[in-house]
Amino acid sequence: MLHALVTVAAEEGHSGGNPLLPAVYDITWSLVCFVIIAAVVWFYALPRIGAVLDKRSSAIEGNIAKADEAQRKAEAALEEYTAQLAAARKEAGEIRESAREDGRKIVLEAKETAAAEAARLTAAAHTQIEAERQTALVSLRAEVGTLAVDLAGNVIGETLSDDAKAQAVVDRFLADLEASEKAAQ
Hints:
Blueprint: H1 2-12, H2 24-156, H3 163-184
Helix pairs in contact: 2-3
C-alpha cells in the first residue's frame, strides 16, 4: 500500500519531499502539545500519584505491622490456652484421684461401720440368747422341780409340801443330771 501511495504521488507530480514525513508545522505543534502534557504530568500528576502510592505503601506497612502484632498476640493466646488446658487437665486428674481416694475411704469406713454393727448385733444376740437360756433354764428347773416333787410324792405316797426341802431335792437332782452330762462329753 505504501508503494501505491508513493507511485500515485510521483505520478501527480508532487516533488515536495517524502510523503511519509509530516509537515514541519505538524511536528512543531505536536512538540508543543507534548511539552505541555509532559509538564502537567511531571508537575501535577506525578506528585499526586507519588503521594497516593506513599500513602498506600504506609497503609500496607501499617497493616503488615498490625498483622504481625495480631499474630504474636494469637500465638501468645494459644500458648496461654495450651498452658491453661494442661493445668485444667492436671487439676481434673487430681480431682478424679481425690474422688477415688475419698470413695475408697468411704467404702472402708462403711465396711468398718458394718463390721462394728454386725459385731454389736452379734454380741447383743448372744447376750439375749444367754438371757433367754438362763430364763428357760430357771423356768425348766422350776417345772422339773415341781414335776419331780409331784412324782416323788406319788412314788412315796406322801406330799412333799416343804418348799425348802423340795427345792434342795430338785437342786441335787439337777446337779447330778448336769454332772452326768459333763461326764458323758
